[in-house]
Write a structure and sequence with these properties.
Elements (H helix, E strand, L loop, with lengths): L6 E5 L4 E5 L7 E4 L2 H22 L18
Antiparallel strand pairs: 1-2, 2-3
Length: 73
């Protein structure tokens, strides 16, 4: 089974790493390191899915895939 893509990036504005799950609206997490942000995103994903299920809300299938990087020349 495919899993949700987690996009991790550094936010200059927030001065921390952000981990976002594009397929799950408003599901993101933060951390002082990229690893911490990623781990927190896994916790956020679990909570997001539990709440959606409990509330009978639709759960989107994992579809987001980042654009591949262009080949180096």
């Amino acid at each position: 089974m495919k899993d949700y893509t987690i996009v991790v990036f550094y936010s200059e504005e927030d001065e921390c790493y952000v981990a976002d799950i594009p397929d799950l609206k408003y599901c993101s997490a933060f951390g002082d390191t990229s690893e911490e942000a990623f781990k927190e995103a896994l916790v956020a994903k679990k909570g997001w899915l539990e709440v959606a299920k409990a509330e009978g809300l639709p759960i989107p299938l994992p579809k987001y895939r980042p654009d591949p990087l262009p080949a180096a020349s």
